[in-house]
Amino acid sequence: MILLDTSFLIDLLKERRNAVDKAAELVNRDILATTYVNIYELLIGVFNKKGIDYEKKMNTIEHLTEKLEVLTLEKDSTIKSAEIGGELMLKGQIVGDTDNMIAGIALSNGINTIVTRDKEHFKRVKGIKVEGY
Length: 133
Description:
Elements: E1 2-4, H1 6-13, H2 17-27, E2 32-35, H3 36-47, H4 54-66, E3 69-71, H5 75-90, H6 97-108, E4 113-115, H7 119-123, E5 129-131
Parallel strand pairs: 1-2, 1-4, 2-3, 4-5
Helix pairs in contact: 1-2, 3-4, 5-6
């Protein structure tokens, strides 16, 4: 499985060529997944804007997520997320809680590849391979 980060999902929803091309490549490679933490980040982007068609945006996000395996934050992934956050804090490399949770969910589900535009966020996490596009 390959995990798709929020930045990639945003670019895919905006139909940016590099993300669309990468998605076409990934579909043939493996099962694609994301997390409810990523969905949360997408939804913040919907609710923090005025004058948009909320229903249309929500339907677009729902349609996209129906094509993905959406992973949840559970006990094991919560512990792994905290471990990641703690280790990075000790090194002075704070990434942010949501990225810690995304990485923790990925690793707890046997996923070691994350596709993202934000390579710097995840490359510090031990066990995570970052793929750009």
